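quick one before i forget lol
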Amino acid sequence: MLTKFSVTNFKSFNEEFSLDLTDTNGYTFNKSSIKNGIVNNGIVYGKNGVGKSNLGLAIFDIISHLTDNGTSEKLYKNYINAENESDKAIFVYEFLVDSKKIVYKYKKTDMNTIVSEKFSIDGEILASINRSTGYVLVKFKGAENLKTELPNNLSLLKYIKSNTVLDKNENNKAFENFYDFVERMLFFRSLQSNDYIGLEVGRRDVYQGIIEQNNVSDLQEFLNTAGIVCKLTVIKESENEVIAFDFGDKKINLFTIASTGTVSLVLFYYWLQVLREKSLVSFLFIDEFDAFYHHELSALVVRKLKETAVQFMLTTHNTSIMTNDLLRPDCYFTMNSKKIISFSKMTNKELREAHNIEKMYKAGSFNV
């Protein structure tokens, strides 16, 4: 699980910006939202322009150099903060893997240029590189004979993963499971385009993916449950199969007449079918997850996500889902350009299940 993250000098984050998912409270309700003392389900609030989207992009920067999974160059333009004098962005991740604390720190000048990396397990540094000085350290058992003349800009960790057969021990197993976690991370949003980062190599058409999984009838049931009463079928257009609304004699391509909200919901369903396979996704970040949803639909989506048991973070402006019926005060976060902190840490009042935290939020009780 991802436990902590910090970033410096990346996009809107001039100074160090930290997210701590271990600072939880001992609430007796919605226990499934916390796992091993770590926030498993989180929702982030904040005014426009504070950097909620950039937080997601910062967390998923790791995908570009450790994996071959999908990413987006356009999302990582203007990489370095405009006000910072340094030309290096700093990223620090902490994970809990196999009951071990893994810390991975690196510096980049842009999306594809790695300046330094340091990887440790329970405080022991097992891999480190600094391209400015030429220093390279590899202490993994089984990698003693690994050549350390790396190709330019290749991640040291990816180099180790691709070119060694490590001995079987606890640290190496934790390293393999850390890598597996990163390869199964997923970010998506549908505000401007159906962007996603991580999980799959290349890009797949959303509708084709649903058809290939024989989930069109399940999508129909999902949309009906969400209040969109419809009947779906599959038709051919230009030799391609597409999902269509079935009006009896007429069948019309869903994409051509569906509302923005319905299209966004179909995108969510596409990824939901992946999330239902619990081994496929390790960590999920959805930016503005309910931008086009009615508030009741937003709550339904959160419940569907909770059913998957996947660790997730969502960003939203929708306060109607700010309720202890869905999550709990240490799983709701408020954010400004300088910091992010859970509701439970923003008040001296003992928050209970019966408290109306939406009302408290609007009254300014959780202002950062």
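fyi The radius of gyration is 22 Å.
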